[in-house]
Amino acid sequence: MTEIPRLEIVDMHKSFGSKVVLNGLNLTLAKGESVVVIGGSGTGKSVLLKCILGLLQPEAGQIRIDGEDTVGLGGAERERVLKKFGMLFQSAALFDSLTVWENVAFGLIEGAGMEREQARAIAVDKLAKVGMGEDMADADPAGLSGGMRKRVGLARAIATEPDIIFFDEPTTGLDPIMGDVINNLITECVQDLGATTLTISHDMSSARTIADRVAMLYDGRIIWAGGVDQIDNCDNEFVDQFINGREDGPFALEVS
Question: What CATH number has the domain spanning 1-76+201-256?
Answer without folding.
Answer: 3.40.50.300
